[in-house]
Amino acid sequence: MKKISFKTDILPLKNELYRLALRITLNPAEAEDVVQDTMIKVWNRREAWDDIESIEAFCLTICRNLSLDRMRHLENQNQSLEEGDHDKADQSYASNPEEQAMQRDRIELIRQLINELPEKQRSAMQLREFEGKSYKEIASIMAVSEEQVKVNIFRARQAIRQKYIETEKYGL
User: Fold this and answer.
1) What is the pTM of this model?
2) Tell me, what's the pLDDT at 77?
3) I need a surface site. Which of 35, 47, 78, 128 has the fewest CB within 10 A?
4) Which secondary-structure segment (H or E) carries 100?
5) How far apart are CA 78 and CA 63, in angstroms?
């Protein structure tokens, strides 16, 4: 077994933990607090690190659970991701300002649609599509079966696709 180091194995996960917490809480300040609490909880469990199969899955599970606890505690004050300074639209595809504006609007719409998903679908989608986790890792993090992860991701994609099409075709 590999000896786990906080500095080299756990601390580099902070950005990934932040993105997961932000996707769940939809609040940058809360997400930062969740990451800090996650790091403290992981540190306090340092005696058990050698027994943990995947320290990354362990950290993500703690982060997800803390995020859900905070959401319940704060009665789900849904603030959107758009308030923060996040990913910008890819502007390399066109120099046409109209195309760039349309692309930014589409990205904004998709972010909004993702934010409206139920928590399990939103979390599964975040871990799979944005973090690149395998179904097995997601199942471990979310404490559900791989089949349930696939169902949640499928339903999330379907809901986003359907709402996107409805929005784009509105008024036509």
Assistant:
1) 0.57
2) 42
3) 47
4) helix 97-115
5) 18
The Cα 145–Cα 33 span in angstroms is: 29
- Euclidean distance between CA atoms 8 and 166, whole angstroms: 46
d(CA 105, CA 15): 26
Amino acid at 72: R
- Name the residue among 169, 159, 68 with its Cα closest to residue 110: 159
What is the length of the chain? 172
Average pLDDT value over all residues in the chain: 83
Give the CA distances from residue 110 to residues 5, 95, 123, 147, 168, in Å, rounded to whole numbers and listed in that order: 38, 22, 15, 25, 11
Burial label, 61 (beta-carbon count in 10 A; 0-12, 13-18, 19+): middle
- Angstrom distance (rounded) from CA 136 to CA 155: 18
**Cβ atoms of 54 and 96 closer than 8 Å:** no
* 20 contacts 63 by C-beta, under 8 angstroms: yes
Q: Write out the H or E segment, with its range, that includes residue 36.
A: helix 28-44
pLDDT on residue 68: 87
- Pairwise CA distance, residues 17 & 39, whole Å: 10
